[in-house]
Amino acid sequence: MVSTIRPSRGYRVFQGVNGVILTLVVLITLYPFVNIVARSFSGEKEIRAGDVTLWPKGFDLTTYEIVFSDSMFWRNYGNTVLYTVVATAVAMVLTTCYAYVLSKHHLKGRGALVGIAVFTMFFTGGLIPNYVLITSLGLKNSVWAIALPNAISVFNLLVMKAFFESLPSELEEAAQIDGLSTYGVLLRIVLPLSKAVVATMVLFYSVSFWNSWFSAFLYMDRTELMPVTVYLRNLLAGATGGTGAGATTENLTQVNANIQAVTIVLTSLPILCVYPFVQRYFVSGVMLGAVKG
Amino acid sequence: MKNTGQLSRRQILAAAGFIGLAALTGCGSGDGEDAKDLSKKRTGAMKNHRSGQQFKATQPLTFTVLHNDNPNYPMKESWLFWKELTRRTGVTLDATPVPLSDYEKKRSLLIGAGDAPLLIPKTYPGAETAFVSSGAILPVSEYIDLMPNLQDKVRRWNLQPEVDSLRQSDGRSYLLPGLHEKVRQQYSLSFRTDILDQHGLALPTTWDEVHTTLKALREEYPDRYPLTDRWSTNTPFPAGALFQYLGQAHGVRAGWSYLNTTWDATAETFVFTGATDAFRQVVEYLRKLVAEKLMDPESFTQTDEEAVRKLLGERAFAISANAQELVQNYRYNLQRQVKGATIEMIPVPLGPAGPVVMGGGRLENGMMISSKALERDDFVALMQFVDWLWYSDAGQEFCKWGVENTTFTRSGGAGYRLEPGISLMGSDPDAPKDLQKDFGFHNGVFTYGGSWKLVSSSFGPDEKKFTDAMAARKELPTDPPHPLRAEEQEQATLWDTPLKDHVTQNALRFVLGKRPLSEWDDYVKELKAKNMDRYIELHNQAYERFKKENA
């Protein structure tokens, strides 16, 4: 006879209240974004009147049209994709190697290696020295100026190191007894077991490279090398600065009204599309890295 | 542990060495050689470069220039501007585009790293001070004799006091400013004229009339504040525009143009602006408006969007404006939302100071030149070129309107007309081409200042009416030069910001009635506690010193 334990009244009330509160939290978190999306499709008159809440009013695509019809937008979008992919790949290789080495307790000078990494969290050379360095290395106006200086995020490094340290060392010993070299252990045993943390780091890195604009702004001298973040940032400044507008009156006021919303939608959309697929690794990845052993 | 400790020390040493190296690179271009012997630097230069004459390099030259890239007309290499410029002057400009959003940041970086292009335009007076001590910027005042067009304009338009105000503590100036023949006023109050007409009210011409007009409006609409204002966010001085033009009517710099120092011409000494009687009158006037519920107290905190929404929703009938906002925003939107609505901008109402405009307003953003230019053989040609393009009538006309019979035609002596099919800032929405986007003229990098005829040639009817009225007013004298030395500058900066903040905060508290005006003397005492007197003393000393050294 199958008997289920009926949840107590108190528990059901708790669950009900919980559900309501969490739904509210979800709505509150979602609202600003939905509102931004709605604004990006709304007419200028309705935005100014403050009528736009959840649904676009006075449907208008002028700003999207202006942005999309500019070949420089697509070019810069392509740059963003390229920079993100290259920089993330470089960052992943370097961070993984560094973290794996640091996780080995028998390594001599491990403390010093950690020290070097941590040192950079507290001290930097400063803007101008960095610029001089990148310039004299001949990295200016190339993807490497973006990928190399930011290749290792110390925070990510430490999370990864903690994760590797939590893997049972018996696994690696067994693999070595079975004849795997050091690299074999890393590539065939450790990495396949670390999908969660790798996915998390890829997400961390790619989001940060996707959103970054400052290093590209510093090290790129030509408009066609800029990522889309710089393009949109400049568009925003031009539309709100009010200095010598080039668009026709009607277009300009429209652009003025919702350029910010359009910008946010365009830059966050790709990340939003990728997120659901990486998200399941994400929680476990961070947790595994954080709670050691 | 010991190991890591040693390493970090080494790292610190390395970092220190690095910074030193960078500083060396930044300061590398001092003027060690005899700066004034220019006989070997005349490659490409004209023998007789005179005012009003076309400059043409005797051999092809290339100069680098930093280009402030405006998203409304992104830089293109195909612009007629570049091609025609090379044809006329023999000079090719090699431009580095920098997004307008962060132009100042990149400019500082490039100058600091010793990597700046030769020509660095779009620099506002005062912004050059930060670069003076590094030696990376050319002391242009030493080479003014190479620039006859500039000299001619300074002389004809009596700009010497303004130009002198740019001098640094070494007596030299490092910025070639944009020069205006007349002060260009941009901001004032705008009123809903249809509402005024409806109630038999006239447009006010003085601040007293503004008060009575607002009062009359309040009586007609007791549930609304007749005046709401904007330009209160993202600015150190809320309601910056209103304070500015109201301050001008009282002869004092307030709002956006607020400066801690004010020149007292009768006493021949600098005084602290926030403690002057004129500043107090400005505050008292606004207090009166707010206390009598004639002005929306949210004016000082709301966003521009909220303020405009109140205007469009007829919850207010007056608001600060400039010609562009008046036409493209207020009027355009009002006409679509409120039937029969009309709105006009009035000349800045007159106050106790009479029909005046603030002095010093005739300098616009201008150009710094990298001191690397001096090391080049073609230095003289560079200065002649800059003189022609930025300061000659022909150069200014070319930058603004382009090529005659290609982009513009002359009409009736003074006027310029765009060729059919070319639009400028929406002047002809159906035109296939745009003067800025497709030809590269009317570009903020190259177009600033000039004769009143040229400056006003692109005004719309509203702006023309407004500026013509304002141009008749008398300009108050410019502050005499009082450049601080580097170490004084550092000290002054430490005092400057807290003083400014205290003035701004308390001006608002007085206006909003959060602090009674009877506490004015306490407020002045608080300023004294924040080193007001020592700050003013510093500037007066600098003034006396400069006067003595440059007598």
Automatic annotation (TrEMBL), chain A:
Membrane topology listed for this record: Multi-pass membrane protein
Residue intervals passing through the bilayer: 12-34, 81-101, 113-132, 144-164, 185-210, 259-278
SUPFAM superfamilies assigned: MetI-like
Cell compartments where the protein resides: Cell membrane
Alphabetical UniProt keywords: Cell membrane, Membrane, Transmembrane, Transmembrane helix, Transport
Record-annotated ABC transmembrane type-1 domain positions: 77-275
Matching Pfam families: BPD_transp_1
Top-level lineage group: Bacteria
Keyword Disulfide bond listed: no
Family: Belongs to the binding-protein-dependent transport system permease family.
Protein name: Carbohydrate ABC transporter permease
TrEMBL record, chain B:
Pfam families, per the entry: SBP_bac_1
Positions in coiled-coil regions: none
Cross-referenced InterPro entries: Bact_solute-bd_prot1, SBP, TAT_signal
Keywords: Cell membrane, Lipoprotein, Membrane, Palmitate, Signal
UniProt superkingdom: Bacteria
Name listed for the protein in its UniProt record: Extracellular solute-binding protein
Organism of derivation: Streptomyces prasinosporus
Lineage, top ranks: Bacteria, Bacillati, Actinomycetota, Actinomycetes, Kitasatosporales
